[in-house]
């Protein structure tokens, strides 16, 4: 199976998107299709037997136009400012000609409705022809969508406008023949006004939709357009498109890394805040990976190009975010189903209103006004924007705040989660051993002891030895000379520094060398906190005890508290032994621990929780977490986790910050609330406006004309847009 995202032209409302989606799904070879109204895209999964040309043809047959494969950088709205201003002035002129006499304004003499009815009628006719051309896309799309049995907003406007035009044109002929009484039965100005307001509404929609894509576009434009490449005769600035895999590139202080790569010479501090959210620059040196778009804070670096273009980290993130906007939350499908019957229902109501008004003797003029008003005031646009716009805005908010959400339904489903399951190592903890506590019983400082220990441990390959060796490296501490180094299997190390002999290891060393242990209580205390204990012995005397353990993440405790306040059940699921797991869980505030489980057992535990009625989010970072991440309702992985864990997860925490889990719940809650508000106002508008337009309340003096209906329709969409854009103001708590 292949997958492509096509840019679609001609969609104006949810009836368009749902109609295109249904048509694509009917075609042989199309496995799945999801159409996004806001992004104006169609995400299509198809088999090898059909080509992109076939897909473009399917889109055309459905009444729309495929603009080729979607590229966020090419996704720019046409600059229609001048056109809208000129046509706005023109429509005001039309209104002045047709209504100046009604509001006691000076009338253009040769266009006076009573004195020169033919001039007046022909002038408005000419303007209506111009505006029919101006709104020709609406007319053409409306006809196409009726032809392909998927009527939409354009179809409603098209029927109303052409009905008014034909009726007015017939009256124009009679006026030219001398029947001047029909001059008040012309609706040419309504045609101009309706088409302009519909186009104006879509222009505003387009500008607003562009704002929803800003966060995604910012990601794309982070990377520089050029790079410095190393040549035999020096360095040369080249276009980013000229960089090839394996090229050695140079980046100087203040410059951005042009592509993903690995450092081959030099060291520096790198600002990766655009992707991790971490404002403090990270030190990197030879063999460390660098990401395109990150900034070199100091030092001159040479690095080998590894990934560029579509293969880069940024491109991968952008693709995931765009693909996420092309999935649908369950609540969005409800709106699609409503929209699919909404337009045909409105057409039926409009014709029913026309016929009833004729039957009760309202006359052809009033009956036609009611017919056109119903068609124009109905607004499936608001229904279509209600969910899709909120989802796209929220996806942008997530991307901007380091939350990579792969599917938009996650933003809805997160609100249903009642159980959050955490892996321990690498998730609730950092997954790396660290020095947690030093008990110093010597006259040396802690730093002096660690310098000696690090110098000896650097000669060993034991995992605990790495902790001390790394301490020296990260703090730029030079190693001391060590002589007579020995590794004592299962116990520790020995070595001489200067004239002193040191033993470093566990309590078995004490027994082997008959050293009295007066620190059993301290050892028990460190052990109860989950530490591995390292004794430091100088010349057969214990001078220090050092606790080494996997450190709990900084905000793990606060995040667990926040989740409990949201009434989420929190569980630790780990392959570690029960004693260590329980100690860590208790320190964090987690009451339920499932320990000593294999990767397959983890997945079984997740399944059993789901079978028991829980809605489960699994948070993990390792290969052993991949199965359980896949089985969970929502799988969450750290950006620092293994690739397979990231592939299995629905959400990736780009900042490697546990608080992002709480943020996900908060954004989900606000997104769902916003969608429900949008749907309410969209439905409420139509429930109120359509009966008024149909003349149900004429007995009470409450009625509407087509121009007012078109204004109301535009305002309903703008209301939904403004409400959805409020989500952009979300801030982390």
Layout of helices and strands, plus pairs?
Elements: E1 2-9, H1 14-25, E2 30-36, E3 41-46, H2 52-61, E4 65-69, H3 81-99, H4 117-134, H5 136-147, H6 153-176, H7 188-212, H8 214-220, E5 226-231, E6 234-239, E7 248-251, E8 260-265, E9 268-271, H9 273-276, E10 282-284, E11 289-290, E12 295-296, E13 301-307, H10 313-325, H11 330-359, H12 363-377, H13 380-400, E14 403-405, H14 409-413, E15 419-422, H15 424-428, E16 429-440, H16 446-457, H17 463-474, E17 483-488, E18 492-497, E19 500-505, H18 508-512, H19 520-528, E20 532-538, E21 541-552, H20 556-565, E22 569-573, H21 578-588, E23 592-594, H22 599-611, E24 616-620, H23 626-631, E25 634-638, H24 643-648, E26 651-653, H25 659-693, H26 706-725
Parallel strand pairs: 15-22, 15-24, 22-23, 24-25, 25-26
Antiparallel strand pairs: 1-3, 1-4, 2-3, 5-6, 5-7, 7-13, 8-11, 8-13, 9-10, 9-12, 14-26, 16-21, 17-18, 18-19, 19-20, 20-21
Describe this structure in words.
The protein has 733 residues and is an alpha+beta fold. Among the domains are: 73 residues, Alpha-Beta Plaits (2-Layer Sandwich); 177 residues, no CATH class; 86 residues, Distorted Sandwich (Calcium-transporting ATPase, cytoplasmic transduction domain A); 123 residues, Calcium-transporting ATPase, cytoplasmic domain N. Helix content is 49%, strand content 20%.
How far apart the termini lie comes to 42 Å
Number of helices: 26
**What gross morphology would you assign?**
elongated
Helical residue percent? 40-55%
Mean pLDDT: 82
